[in-house]
Design a protein that fits this description.
It comes from Phytophthora sojae (strain P6497) (Soybean stem and root rot agent). The protein is an all-alpha fold and 176 residues long. It is built from nine helices and no strands. It folds into two domains: 80 residues; 79 residues, no CATH class.
Length: 176
């Protein structure tokens, strides 16, 4: 089998550029990851300075709303994709975001959600944005927000990964 394929050998219809508006409810980290995946899927060395002008134009086209306006005002001062992402983060990611996210996790609980599935979804949405959190801390935050009996079951089973803790909680709720 041929190990090297041309970019035309793959269908990439489902791979689309992410959009970013700079709104506080958006995850800048997720935007960065989706942007990176887009360029990787298209086999574009987007950090190579040789392609900087083209890559900056592509990234610039993904910025909408206040992020787009910010970029239009500064695009002549930006020379690389890495610089653009660094300055975008400085402009739109609150300095205390990590503290806020941890507070959201601390206050999130199953009782305030429609279902365990809703709680899991909300929890994952927040925890994916948190940086430098150990797996055991994720389990602790997750289990503390569960209903008392489900919380006890997760503790009893001594799960050490978030995925395992979620599985135990879901299994317990289905069987009780």
């Amino acid at each position: 089998m041929n190990e090297q394929r041309g970019t035309n050998d793959f269908k990439l219809d489902g791979v689309r550029l992410p959009k970013y508006t700079g709104h506080e409810s958006e995850s800048f980290r997720l935007y960065q990851e989706e942007l990176s995946q887009y360029f990787e899927a298209r086999n574009i060395d987007w950090k190579n300075e040789r392609w900087a002008t083209r890559v900056l134009a592509i990234i610039g086209s993904t910025l909408k709303g206040q992020a787009g306006q910010w970029y239009l005002a500064r695009k002549h001062e930006i020379y690389s994709a890495e610089q653009l992402l660094r300055e975008l983060a400085r402009a739109f990611v609150p300095a205390d975001l990590q503290l806020r996210l941890r507070e959201q996790l601390r206050h999130l609980n199953q009782k305030s959600c429609k279902s365990l599935g809703d709680y899991v979804s909300r929890f994952r949405n927040i925890v994916l944005q948190v940086e430098d959190m150990t797996e055991i801390d994720k389990v602790v935050y997750f289990s503390q927000g569960l209903m008392p009996n489900t919380h006890q079951e997760v503790l009893y089973k001594r799960r050490e990964t978030l995925t395992d803790a979620i599985t135990v909680a879901m299994d317990y709720e289905r069987s009780h």
